[in-house]
Amino acid sequence: MTSARTALLAALALFAGGAFTMAAETSGTAVNSVRIVLPDEPGPVLQKIAGILERQIVQRCAATVSTSGTAALAVELAVEPGIGNDGFKISGADGGAIRIAGDNERGVLYGIGKLLRGSRFEQGGFRAGGWRGTQTPKCPIRAVYLATHFNNFYEAAPLEDVQHYVQDLGLWGYNTIIVAYPPIQFNGLSDPAAQKWLGRFKTVLAAARQSGLQVGLLECPNQGYKNTPAELKATKVPGNFRGNFGVNLCPSKPEARKALFQLYDELLDQFKDTGLDYFGFWPYDEGGCACPQCWPWGARGFAALAKELAQHVRARFPAAKTILSTWCFENENDANPDGEWAGLAKVFASEDKSWASYLMSDGHDNYFPKYILETGVPGGLPLLNFPEISMFGMNPWGGYGANPAPAHFQRLWDRIKHKAAGGAPYSEGIYEDLNKAICAQFYWDPERKAEETVQEYAAFEFAPDAAADLLEAVRIFEQNHSRGGIRDSAVRAFELVSQSEEKMTPQARKSWRWRIFFLRALIDKEMFERKGKLAGEPLKQAFEELTRIYHAENAGPMPLKPPQVR
Ligand SMILES: [Zn+2]
User: Fold this and answer.
1) How far from chain centre, in Å, is Cα 256?
2) DSSP letter for each residue of 100-128
3) What spacing in Å lies between the alpha carbon of 379 and ligand 1's midpoint?
4) What is the pTM of this model?
5) How far apart are CA 553 and CA 565, in angstroms?
6) Which of 165, 249, 399, 499 is spaced 20 to 30 A from 42 at the CA atom?
7) Closest CA to 263 of 247, 245, 252
8) Ligand 1 mean position to 392 CA, how many Å?
9) DSSP one-letter code for 277
10) Which tens digits make up the pLDDT trace of 367-378?
């Protein structure tokens, strides 16, 4: 397609109501068979990535996919170093084939994502996206943090579903999957519960790596096992939000320090086979010690402990990068700030700082540390954000279906987009899938608008012809996010969603992504009409379906199990 024609289509789409064109970019006609062409000796990662392309096509339409024989369309995958880190190039090849070349294997995955999102999946089969060109991501760290607790999706869903979900995140541009081993839930490494956790999440991380992604662990370095003797424990830290389940240790006590290094040495050894690309240090929620030797925690006890633990990480994983989080550091708006920001800056100014690769910073709700915005990043380290996409403004989390909030995340991102080297959204499940896509695309291209990603997501996951209507529905969802303030626009959103469903394929209509989106519209309409009362058969069935989709049957009533209607 010529650029003049692209521009004309874009202008027409804008004229037609602010829509970003997506649908018109396919090439050729729908095909009922696709052959994926791999290089000779493709290697296990590229083979796995070819499997992702195959799964995506066959789950969305009736086309068959093979890696041998003849087919109506060939899609060639190749690794071609030199495109730019994690980048890809999509080109047309002889005989109508499509060629996706990645700078590395991950780059091929991103190219596949780009191709698929511009494609149409129809009754006649697969109509490939027509976008051709080269893209490279701007931010090097495009991670997602998967919380693994409370029997959330990541803990409770069938392992294969979690593995596929992680691969799907890669299609949007993520390059790193991070989890946190939670010592406070276990009595040591040999505790069967600890072994179960390790068995499951080492498998998830290994599968992520086999799909070309990187993996990391995030740990609160002074957190101990729940059977830790009382005399090793920390002095409770002041302030709200600095969660404490009672097993933080004081690293200024020699025996506690010994126990902590034993814990983390044993844990790191568990990941020898899986490998670790990142290790993150978390100061609070959990974490912290307010004894005179450790305080102010972020600048003293925490920084010293993280620095020493970084040597243990690098002894086992020499190429691993470290992330120093500042979550719940002092709030400078408080009357008596604790001196953590200035103290940490002083540490980096006076000592070797090579142990810390990145600094992560963010806050609850709309807060972002003033120190970073006004003074800068301590040590001048590259900055990562940690957007909270899961829990904001709704309880139970995900209990009412999808929770997209493009305007909210656009506001948060705009404050730091010129400074950030990437980040890692905080995820409690799959209900914030659309928020994850928004963040992935911010990291890929900091200037990309959240609403543009919403449209691309709706076109890809639901129906290209319904993308503009579904963007309008998302705007309404966000206006009605607060459960106490659902307005009559909820009725309009339900209309938009219902009429969009008529434009969708049977496969898209049945997908969990659509169901959680549709149910959000239904629940909001019902709640508006019932003046917020959670009653009646439609709501009962909607919450039960969400519970099944999330595998939340065994999640506690709070914070993750959808509301129950009797
Ligand atoms: Zn202490």
Assistant:
1) 34
2) EEESSHHHHHHHHHHHHHT-EEETTEEE-
3) 24
4) 0.94
5) 14
6) 165
7) 247
8) 32
9) S
10) 999 999 999 999
